[in-house]
Amino acid sequence: MAEQLTYALVNPHTLRKSRTGGILSRLITRTSLDLVASRLFAPSRELVREYADQLRTFNDRSQSHQDRVRRLIHSYVLTNYSPDLITGRRHRVLMLLFRGDNAVAKMRDCVGDISQRSVTGESVRDTYGDYIVGEDGQVKYFEPAVLTAQTMQEVAPHLRTWAKHSDRDGGLLENVIPYKRTHRTQRTLVIIKPDNFTFPSGKPGNVMDMFSKTGLYIVGFKVNRMTVAQAEEFYGPVLPILREKFKEFSGERARATLSKEFGFELPAASAPNFGEIVGPRYAEAQFDDIVRFMSGRKPSECKPADKKKIGTVKSVVIVYEGEDAVAKVREVLGPTDPRKAPPGSIRREFGQNIMVNAAHASDSPENAKREMKILRVSENNLKTTIEEFYPRRRA
Q1: pLDDT tens across 19-52, in order?
Q2: Is residue 254 within a helix (H) or strand (E), and if so which, with residue range?
Q3: Is residue 4 part of a domain?
Q4: Is residue 84 part of a domain?
Q5: Most buried of 47, 188, 233, 324 (most Cβ within 10 A)?
């Protein structure tokens, strides 16, 4: 079967309740589809009305359960996706794009239907959705958790609608969280690193789930493939540190190796001289490995023109916002070396070594701004992905 592109919309209530990580884990592991793009939206009334109109696929007079649920979803979108009637504040909605064989049906089945009998945990809505009916047969509470296309016929129009509004209504969101005036907020950047995406697993969502205990809010979300040039700029400040750090280590190692090779002990005083020669080269080799890990290619193996090509490995970039965001995120993440990270931290749970350590987090608000600029968090790769996969038909 040919590849298809489909979507999952994480609803405002689901985002507010910090259930995004758990849902992402299920969408990845239970469909084995490839997460290829994403964008956080603050939908306008125009986008909401257009999308809601596309959901009117029900018979108004029908009493079938399917039509009843679709009427509820239509009403839910108009009510919960639209800006607040009093304050005008917009709500956050996260769109995730997935690609793969039979993607539409796989995503539909994973998201699931919703009914009073949906209590088994087989689908996303079984666990995260609610459908409460009173004794009079009227629906008292309805929360579908996630929305997705039901058929191949509707997926392309839905995606084109969101793509059309994605520049204006999506990206790095501003003024979507109602803070008290006394709150002093920060933003920080998190990268869920490529080691979480080597095969379809729940790790990316599980890492997100652990970050949720910070109580911070997601205001930016991007599936990213870092270029070599971006990785070099991003980690550039690390290289001088590595050069200094490895001088002593590599000098002693070089002295010991040469002593063994020549069969006589070289004086300890020679180690600093060896360190001056070997240390910077060793640091550059380590830097090359870091860049390859994050982008898929070593700088030393790339022609200058290739450094700006999209990377071959995937990561997810998230911007969190709230009080003391930098410190809160780094506390949950843990120190760089997973062996030194405390129990319950992300790097202790998911890290392997100093480089393959699950996630990155900015170490200051200033660095967060720098890193967001390098990775172009607001870049609209969702629109590009949709338009390439479902080009508009010529009139």
Answers
A1: 999 999 999 999 999 999 999 999 999 999 999 9
A2: helix 238-262
A3: yes
A4: yes
A5: 188
Task: Tell me the C-alpha distance between 107 and 101, whole Å.
Answer: 11
Helices 365-375 & 228-235 angle (0-180, nearest 10):
170
The answer on 141 and 2 residing in a single domain is: yes
Structural domain span for residue 259: 231-308
Task: Examine the pLDDT at 206 and tell me if it is beyond 70.
Answer: yes
Tokens at 116, concatenated: 């009073």
Res 119 pLDDT > 70? no
Residue 355 placed within a domain: no
Structure confidence at residue 269 (pLDDT): 85
Report the DSSP beta bridge partners of residue 361.
Answer: 190
Nearest-10 Cα torsion for 14, 17, 21, 27: -20
CB 295 within 8 A of CB 311: yes
Helix (H) or strand (E) holding 181: none
Last residue of a domain, one of 308, 326, 347: 308
Helix (H, G, I), strand (E, B) or coil at 120: coil
Over the range 360-393, which residues count as b (16 or more CB within 10 Å of their CB) and which as e?
bbbeeeeebebbbebbebbebbbbebbeebbeee
Count of C-beta atoms within a 10 Å radius of residue 67: 15
Measured distance CA(24)–CA(354) in Å, rounded: 26
Tell me which DSSP letter residue 170 carries.
Answer: B
Whether the pLDDT of residue 395 is over 60: the answer is: no
Confidence of residue 264 (pLDDT cuts 50, 70, 90): confident
Q: Of 253, 277, 308, which closes a domain? A: 308
pTM assigned to the model: 0.92
Q: Are residues 167 and 304 in the same domain?
A: no
Compute the average pLDDT of residues 97-105: 97
